[in-house]
Amino acid sequence: MQLPFLKMQGAGNRIVVVDQRDQNLPPPSPTELRRLGNDDTGPGFDQLMWVGPAHADDTAASYRVFNTDGSEVEQCGNGVRCIAWMLAQESDTERTFTLESPAGLVTAIVLNDRRVAVSMGPPEFDPARVPFVADTRVDRYELDVAGRLLLVSVLAIGNPHCVLEVDDAAAADVAVLGPAIERHQRFPAATNVGFMRVRDRENIDLRVHERGVGETLACGTGACAAVVAGQRLGLLDDEVAVQLPGGQLVVSWLGGTEPVWLTGNAELISEGTIDL
To answer: CA-to-CA distance for 148 and 263, rounded, in angstroms?
Structure first.
């Protein structure tokens, strides 16, 4: 079976979008996903967005998110922007879309310069809902990682995140600490790991080890988590530019139960078909 796909990127995060609104076929098996996610045997991706039909009159589509290791996850901010860009190509006027995700409804607005702003919903700090093993909720937790005691922020932006503040993002030990924290026993569902350097109140540098993928050039929910963590520590303003290895994203949050907004590019790389 051959299925058409779009290969896109958002801040360097490689996204494959498969539109199944009409056929509504089931997604590939984990083995097939691993084959497709590998550059040598498929189009290659960090995340695959499997787009299905809407289940409500006021939504445009539903979607599921799969990592390159074949695992399914709850959310992908860069992938949402790519779906919204695809939907906007179908209309001369429609630029705002409500989408059904595994983590709940999200709203995406395609801007005039083809950047896309996405409302990722409010952050979740309750350890049980992240999920994270902790007796009480605090702004930062002590985490024992291979004999090193780290201070980390823990929250969910549709999916779990752990954020470390570092002196130099470029020099951060992402290759060692990323996998160790991702699979730490206190994260029952594993976690994404962000390494954040605060440059000033409106700018941060960030590297992200993504759950089920490894370090990527960008992570939309990781950018959101880092900014929210920095705001809760009193280090950042309401709107922050996040510099990732693959490019820049902008995150804004007004606190409390307000949604976190993520703005960045969504660019088409190529189109093709995949064999299943």
So the answer is: 35
